[in-house]
Amino acid sequence: MDLLKVRLQTHVGSHTSLSSLILRIYKQQGIPGYYSGLSAAVLRQASYSTIRFGVYEEAKKLFRRPDGTVSPLSAIMSGILGGAAGGIVGNPADVANVRMQNDGSLPSHLRRNYKNVFDALIRMVREEGLRSLFNGVIPNVTRGVIMTTSQISVYDIAKDAMVSGLGMSPASTITHIGSSTIAALVSTTTTSPIDVAKTRIMNSSGKEYRNLGHAVATIYKSEGVSALFKGWVPSFFRLAPHSVLLFILLEQLKAVYIRKHSYAV
């Protein structure tokens, strides 16, 4: 899904459907084509997600009320801190990820042909300088802030609303699935324009777009508002199950931690 999202976002010109893209990748590259950039995607998730969730949870502890609850504003502030930290740390792997996933759509003479994520990072520094690792860092941080704020914060807010408003159990798997799906829907929509601009910037040589605002404006003027939401469908279907599994796992880990802490006391 991530590869399909990147291919759709980097495509300029007439509309390309998801089904036609899937078939084209299979015809040109076969099954392995769907896994282009896998090593970069793994490193990107390991660095980005670990940092943003870790910083988010630590920030929530600082903003927690005396009764142990966290206000929506505090959740948003924690999301901003976590998203910014994750965006910065995960940027090098993200640049490699975008380039490796998009390589197969380029003419053979324009392909970078990175062997793996480490080869990509080394070659970027050697051929383009250290700054290339942080190509698109501003839109990546912006996306990270919006993604973390909308995904994690909306999850907490939706969960509290389902518990207090609908009387659902905070430990119920249904509550966790519902809250995480709502969070995925909101975060996919709010981050889409930034995500498209980020992908275009990372895939470029660094000279096509002056900054995030220029990238968004250029895409809007040349391709219309719909271009800012390219890749929304694969983005959502990638993020929704990811969010559901992630938050269910986090809830289980929290429950184990609370039980052990209670026994210790």
* Unreliable residue runs: none
Beta-strand fraction estimate: under 5%
Number of structurally distinct domains: 1
Largest sheet, described in full?
none
The CATH homologous superfamily is named: Mitochondrial carrier domain
Order of helices and strands: HHHHHHHHH
- Cα distance, first to last residue? 45 Å
What is the CATH domain class? Mainly Alpha
| Overall CATH architecture | Alpha/alpha barrel
- The SS-based structural class is mainly alpha
Number of helices: 9
Under CATH, the topology is which?
A: Mitochondrial carrier fold
The rough form would be described as globular
**Gyration radius, in Å:** 20 Å
Measured as a percent range, the helix fraction is over 70%
Strand tally, please? 0
Mean pLDDT, all residues: 87
Protein name: Mitochondrial dicarboxylate transporter
Solcar repeats: 1-62, 73-161, 171-256
Pfam families: Mito_carr (PF00153)
Family: Belongs to the mitochondrial carrier (TC 2.A.29) family.
Outline the structure in words.
With 265 residues, the protein is an all-alpha fold. It has a single domain (2-264), classed as Mitochondrial carrier domain (Mitochondrial carrier fold). It is 74% helix and 0% strand. It contains nine helices and no strands. The chain has helices spanning 2-10, 18-29, 38-63, 72-102, 117-128, 137-166, 173-203, 212-223, 232-264. Helix 3 runs antiparallel to helix 4 (72-102), helix 7 crosses helix 8 (212-223) and helix 7 crosses helix 9. The longest helix is centred in the last third of the chain and has 33 residues, at 232-264. The relative contact order is 0.12. The mean pLDDT is 87.
